[in-house]
Amino acid sequence: MLYQLLKNKEKKIAIIGLGYVGLPIALSFARHLSVIGFDINDKRIELMRNCIDPSNELVKDDFLGTDIHFTSSLEELKQASFFIVAVPTAVDAHNIPDLSALKLASSTLGKVIKKGDYIVFESTVYPGCTEEDCLPIIEQISGLKAGNDFKIGYSPERINPGDKVHTLENITKVVSGCDEEALQEIAAIYSIVVKAGIHKAASIKVAEAAKIIENSQRDLNIALMNELSIIFDRMDINTYEVLEAAATKWNFLPFTPGLVGGHCIGVDPYYLTYKAAKLGYTSKIIAAGRYINDNMGSYVAKKVIQHIIQYTSDVKAAKVLVMGATFKENVSDIRNSKVADVVNALKDYHLNVEVTDAFADSNSLKEEYGFPLIHNIAKNYDAVIIIVPHNPYKELDDKYFASITKNDALIADIKGIYRGKIKNRKYWSL
């Protein structure tokens, strides 16, 4: 069994793609097995060789005591026998799945695999992608046949950036394989690091679909909360007060309104609607949820602009401070951050917008979205929008916001963390 050969370190395991998903997986396995960490970005490889996580999720101690070799060399990658693919899967400007990284990884695999090897994809895809899009590339380049010469499987990643509780080791791992032998082998190998248990999916497509609906479900529930917040705002009802009352029922689900970005919830549903459309079905509910959530940035900006027009004589001279630029709280990840939607919508009205964040990198923001972070917060803002509730922001109070704003300023508290605390300025939340 490959499982035993890996355990004895007679064979190596390789993780392809060392981002937010791949690096934690690589280091977890490297505490038990001999691991090759492969990435095409040489700068990232050099950082990891020095025990630095380019994504700022892991610390030096997480690298210590591990048997791992970081490389961008195909020749060194050939030493592995079990490959895990954890490259990013995004959507393009038209919300069409972008499989370029996945296809490049498949091409790489075709150049390095040999008879008896295993390949497991963890990248989020639509059902059928592993077997219909990735496998043909691997077979064509390698000249090998899946099932006979090598085995293939799929195991959806469940890495949650910033979450130190729900880690790879302590959440159930869904696995699948191209046949029963592959399923059992893949399950055994993952059980080396996953202590919470293994769920063996009926097929690769089932495992792919499971990942997609996990995030589609969250997307739809948040979309419902966002739509309710729009309705309740017109009724002059505080959404969070409504949710607190409703939550007293035992089976009420605790979702809240907000901007939906990041590399999962704001992206994955488009993979499902894309595949459905290819099969002749146009999504109604999932597409509606995406429409609502994708437009919340402009809705927030509109509420702030309405206030500024009402209370400011010279709109073009108005200043707005946006607090938080990452896609969620307490992480540095700016991928698919919907904060950019708010900033761009405000700038469309020629407002002076400044952005601050406790975790994001200014240069990365400038490169990705066209705006940097400010170094010094001013004292004369017409509105402050707290979009991302980073922990340092939760310590701020009414006195602080009064000190950096004009008398008629609006404090737009998207996640409601200051509800009941702002007394000296206008207050609004979703």
Quick gist of this model?
Helix content is 40%, strand content 16%. The protein has helices at residues 2-7, 22-30, 42-49, 60-63, 74-77, 100-112, 129-142, 180-190, 204-234, 239-246, 268-278, 285-294, 296-311, 339-347, 362-369, 391-394, 398-403, and strands at 12-16, 35-38, 68-71, 80-85, 90-91, 97-98, 118-121, 151-154, 173-177, 198-200, 319-323, 352-356, 381-386, 405-413, 426-428. α6 (100-112) runs parallel beside α7 (129-142) and α13 packs parallel to α14 (339-347).
* Termini gap: 55 Å
CATH class of the largest domain: Alpha Beta
The main β sheet shows up as: 8 strands, mixed
- The CATH fourth-level homologous superfamily of the largest domain: NAD(P)-binding Rossmann-like Domain
User: Number of helical segments?
Assistant: 17
What number of domains?
A: 2
Poorly predicted regions are: none
How is this structure best described in words?
The chain is α/β, with parallel strands linked by helices and 430 residues long. It folds into two domains: 2-201, Rossmann fold; 239-428, NAD(P)-binding Rossmann-like Domain (Rossmann fold), CATH 3.40.50. Helix content is 40%, strand content 16%. It has 17 helices and 15 strands. The chain has helices at residues 2-7, 22-30, 42-49, 60-63, 74-77, 100-112, 129-142, 180-190, 204-234, 239-246, 268-278, 285-294, 296-311, 339-347, 362-369, 391-394, 398-403; strands spanning 12-16, 35-38, 68-71, 80-85, 90-91, 97-98, 118-121, 151-154, 173-177, 198-200, 319-323, 352-356, 381-386, 405-413, 426-428. The strands form three sheets. It has an eight-stranded mixed sheet with strand order 3-2-1-4-7-8-9-10, sandwiched between helices. It has a five-stranded parallel sheet with strand order 12-11-13-14-15. Strand 5 and strand 6 (97-98) form a beta hairpin. Helix 6 (100-112) packs parallel to helix 7 (129-142), helix 9 crosses helix 12 (285-294) and helix 13 runs parallel beside helix 14. The chain is elongated and about 75 Å long. It starts with a helix and ends with a strand.
